[in-house]
């Protein structure tokens, strides 16, 4: 199949949905949240992430509240529940899904979903967030993990054209074959693949660079694409 990933939302006024995951890095959260908040239609706080937003708003005397809080509510404090008493709070007791997965049920598939908060924090949380990107139940969504230093998203089996914004804010790019050995052919990178087998423990594209405003990746497996400053 052929896919197009357009990253123009980074510098346009395109409407987005935001999912906030919990993190201990308040400064990193602030840097992204207040940058993209105004463009958000839905802001979904995953359980304990509501505590994070409350702490940030109290420090800044802000009013950028979430639209929905969802999860099994084992992390959100009573003080936060009261603070956001006018916000929709959805209790979901399902223990077979995480709060992130629950939050994805409330985004609009027609808009990019920007996930902030957890990337680069606890390793298990970060790896789980990456794993969710490849859940076939969410393959119809455009989901991006985003923080002040990194952007990550899935590139699915087939041919994918990635269109960058006019200014590319990252220096390094990676193609990580997390779903098994992948045969990759690429265009537009400093170091391209030509029907090259990429696998964990073998050849993996890291610290690569882009030479054009568009790149093409063709592969026989899903991979993770990363952008880093």
From TrEMBL:
Coiled coil regions in record: none
Domain of life: Eukaryota
The protein's name: Thiamin pyrophosphokinase thiamin-binding domain-containing protein
Any matching Pfam family: TPK_catalytic
Keywords linked to the UniProt accession: ATP-binding, Kinase, Nucleotide-binding, Transferase
Domain Thiamin pyrophosphokinase thiamin-binding: 158-223
Biological processes per GO annotation: thiamine diphosphate biosynthetic process; thiamine metabolic process
GO molecular function: ATP binding; kinase activity; thiamine binding; thiamine diphosphokinase activity
């Amino acid at each position: 199949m052929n896919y197009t990933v357009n990253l123009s939302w980074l510098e346009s006024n395109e409407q987005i949905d935001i999912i906030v995951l919990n993190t201990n890095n308040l400064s990193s959260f602030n840097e992204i949240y207040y940058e993209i908040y105004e463009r958000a239609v839905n802001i979904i706080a995953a359980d304990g992430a509501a505590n994070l937003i409350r702490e940030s708003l109290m420090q800044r005397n802000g009013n950028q509240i979430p639209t929905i809080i969802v999860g099994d509510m084992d992390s959100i404090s009573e003080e936060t529940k009261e603070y956001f008493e006018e916000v929709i709070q959805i209790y979901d007791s399902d223990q077979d899904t995480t709060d992130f997965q629950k939050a994805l049920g409330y985004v609009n598939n027609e808009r990019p979903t920007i996930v902030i908060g957890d990337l680069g924090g606890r390793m298990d949380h970060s790896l789980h967030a990456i794993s969710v990107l490849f859940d076939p139940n969410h393959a119809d969504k455009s989901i991006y993990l985003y923080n002040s230093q990194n952007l990550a998203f899935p590139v699915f089996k087939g041919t994918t054209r990635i269109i960058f914004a006019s200014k590319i804010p990252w220096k390094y790019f990676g193609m990580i074959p997390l779903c098994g050995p992948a045969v990759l052919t690429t265009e537009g990178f400093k170091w391209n693949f030509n029907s090259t087998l990429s696998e964990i423990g073998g050849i993996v594209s890291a610290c690569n660079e882009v030479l054009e405003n568009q790149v093409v990746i063709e592969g026989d497996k899903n991979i993770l694409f990363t952008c880093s400053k």
